[in-house]
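[Meeting: bench + compute handoff]

Bench side (C.D.) handed over the final construct sequence. Compute side (W.E.) agreed to return the predicted structure before the next meeting so the bench team could plan truncations. Sequence as handed over:
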Amino acid sequence: MAIWQYRLFVIPEEEINSYFLNEDYLSEDAFNEIDWWKYKRIDEISLGDLISLLAESKSWSNNIYQLGNIESDCLEILFNKQKILEISIRVDLRNNYNSLIEAICKFGRRNALIFLNYNLKLLSPDEIILKEDISNYNLFDDFITKNQ
């Protein structure tokens, strides 16, 4: 992932409510070990607003459905057979991202989803919340601090 990209992971809200109702952050172990998509499916129709902004493109893997460009704005759905394993979204901060944030939030609300930022902070599908998190996003400084 490029330093100019803001990344979100997407998980079903009902799974968060089952495991972490009053939490603000997930642990890395929880994020990696829980089968978040065991009971949830996403239909292509609910991707409509994102498809209108991000053209379907060929991924490096046959197991990834990709919208957009991995070096810019991008949505990736990782599958194993027909089962979703992971959904992630990258927002290119060099571009005007307002329309994309609106579409991401609409997708989240329509499908009862929660977002996780790069620190695994839980974020509601709300434009103001995501834009505020983007304004606080400083991956480079966090990387330097963690590696000193």
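W.E. noted at the follow-up: The chain has one domain: 5-146. C.D. will use this when planning the next construct.
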